[in-house]
Specification:
Elements: E1 2-11, E2 14-24, E3 29-33, H1 40-47, E4 55-60, E5 63-64, H2 70-76, E6 78-81, H3 93-100, H4 107-120, H5 122-125, H6 137-149, E7 155-159, H7 167-182, E8 186-190, H8 194-200, E9 203-208, E10 211-217, H9 218-221, H10 225-231
Parallel strand pairs: 3-8, 3-9, 6-7, 7-8
Antiparallel strand pairs: 1-2, 1-4, 4-5, 9-10
Domain ABC transporter: 2-234
Family: Belongs to the ABC transporter superfamily.
GO molecular function, one term: ATP hydrolysis activity
Length: 234
């Protein structure tokens, strides 16, 4: 479904991604783990067109997308739920959800999907007329994920969804990601909670200073000595 090949990205003279090659197959949940500054968020921003690669190619459904605009990429079905939630604070919860469906024209189906989402995210159900900026951090994260799901992604990219959340909310986010994957959504996950990410994902890429240094089945990397010492605190 998604293929990055030898991608290099620079911020000025600083190389943020160094010959990164990775793929995500349809129906998979693939995660990126690594320390802060390893390039995980840059991978997602590059796929979604927010950052342009200087070298390499990116293909989605066998179509080159590395020269497309973010709007064109969204219309292909790649939806990016960014780090820091990025809800529209002065808009209501309901208006934020409406923004998730802005590329859709199937009005009746949007209403049905919205009702189903509010069942899946009951914490939002009674807050549709509340300013998104007045929600707690956990509620904003749920809103950001719900907004992304309403866009009907072919590929859903989640950037640090558990960042800054209390442990009980981290578990709720993990359950939602697990449920989305089980329902057939293809997911590329960047997650600072490495143990959670490894237990959720089918496959994992380890990034260090902009390079992929390890890749494989998540259950295998959970037992990898380097991963355990560097990212799991063993």
């Amino acid at each position: 479904m998604l293929q990055m090949t030898n991608v290099e990205v620079y911020y000025g003279s600083v190389r943020a991604l160094d010959s990164v090659t990775l793929h995500v197959d349809e129906g998979e949940l693939v995660t990126l783990i690594g320390s802060n500054g390893a390039g995980k968020s840059t991978v997602l921003k590059t796929v979604s067109g927010l950052t342009s690669p200087r070298v390499g190619t990116i293909e989605f459904l066998n179509q080159r997308i590395d020269d497309m605009s973010p709007t064109e990429i969204v219309r292909l079905g790649i939806v990016h739920c960014p780090e820091g939630r990025r809800v529209f604070p002065d808009m209501t919860v309901g208006e934020n959800l409406d923004m998730g469906a802005y590329t859709r024209s199937d009005t009746d189906d949007i209403a049905t999907d919205r009702d189903r989402l509010l069942e899946r995210f009951p914490i939002l159900h009674g807050r549709q007329h509340q300013r998104a900026g007045d929600l707690s951090g956990g509620q904003q994260q749920m809103l950001a994920i719900a907004r992304a799901v309403l866009a009907q992604p072919r590929l859903l990219m989640l950037d640090e969804p558990s960042l800054g959340l209390a442990p009980i909310l981290v578990e709720q986010v993990a359950d939602i990601i697990r449920e989305l994957h089980a329902s057939g959504t293809t997911i590329l996950l960047n997650e600072q909670n490495a143990e959670m990410a490894l237990r959720l994902a089918d496959r994992t890429y380890v990034l260090e200073t902009g390079r992929v240094t390890l890749e494989g089945a998540s259950e295998d990397l959970l037992q990898n000595e380097h991963v355990r010492k560097s990212y799991l605190g063993d």
